[in-house]
Amino acid sequence: MNHPNEVKQMVRERYAQIAEQSKDDNAASCCGVGAPCTTNIMVDSYAEVNGYNPDADLGLGCGLPTEFARIQEGDTVLDLGSGAGNDCFVARAETGASGKVIGVDFTPAMINLARQKVERLGFNNVEFRQGDIEDLPVADNTVDVVVSNCVLNLVPDKAKVFSEIMRVLKPGGHFSISDVVIVGDLPEGMQQSAELYAGCVSGAIQRDTYLQLIEKSGFEGITVQKQKPVMLPDELLLQFLTAEEVRQFVASGTGIFSVTVFAQKPGETAPRPVVATKEACCAPGSGCC
After folding, report:
1. Which of 66, 117, 246, 284 reaches 20 to 30 Å from 184, CA-CA?
2. What are phi and psi of 239, to 5 degrees?
3. Inter-residue contact 146 to 217 (CB < 8 Å)
4. Residue 139: pLDDT above 50?
């Protein structure tokens, strides 16, 4: 599963299965397929968010990027890995009828599901495009805001994704992306697990490396807007590790975090309100989140 094309095919197959299941079924399995879930441990509630459509929420996120994205009325917003359209519909509530929202996903079943939902909602300014976020089907310098929710960890070439974000953003445009990162080293049994890759854990990279990729891509004003620890229960870890390996992993201090990161493409743009950052609600490893 180390070859990028193998990774992509595995992710596409798993998420095609997710698209065909109910949210309840997805919540009972690891990213919807076959093992106790990781994403429903990470997920933030959209219940009080304007524009939220429960039918489009498959429970696969690890944050609320639209909460921090400084979307304004009339903006063009791009959602990377748009799934069934949840974050697109939330973004549409911010852009209003004068804006435009584009969702890109490379799983045909997800695109079909999202298009069915947007047709039922009657939104003529939300569209879904099938494509790879390493090679976005979006023109240069056309997007005001990019959002994404727990998707980049699934992509083999993360640097290429940030390069594509830079390309499609207008000068002065920005992104707010929620993703999973690691501090420390995962045990080999977790690193090699296809279930944990699809579950948004083993494909995550080091937090510092993640932020450095953004900086090397040319973005400015890089800010961690929110960070929270992801606590995987022992019963999940025991599916991939021995009891002794679990003990060693817990004692190692390795941390898995959901982060929401903001960054801006250089250039002039109208000033936007600053959204306060949010820290983890407790120290990593304390188990209170």
Report:
1. 66
2. -75, -15
3. no
4. yes
CA angle, residues 44, 49, 15, in degrees to nearest 5: 50
What is the distance between the alpha carbons of residues 80 and 91, in angstroms, rounded to a whole number? 12
Tell me what the mean pLDDT of segment 104-119 comes to.
Answer: 94
The CATH architecture assigned to 4-264 reads 3-Layer(aba) Sandwich (3.40)
Q: Label residue 282 left, alpha or beta by phi (over 0 means left) and psi (-120 to 50 means alpha).
A: beta
What pLDDT, in 10s, does the model give residues 227-261?
A: 999 888 888 888 888 899 899 988 988 989 999 99
Task: Please write the tens of the pLDDT for every residue from 86-99.
Answer: 999 999 999 999 99
Domain ranges within the chain, ordered by starting residue: 4-264
Rounded to 5°, the CA angle 24-29-31 comes to: 95
Per the structure block, which two tokens stand in for 52?
């939220």
Looking at per-residue pLDDT, the higher value among 3 and 10 belongs to 10
pTM: 0.85
Closest by CA position to 262, among listed 208, 223, 226? 223
Alpha helices in 142-261 (DSSP H): 158-168, 188-191, 194-198, 207-216, 234-237, 243-252
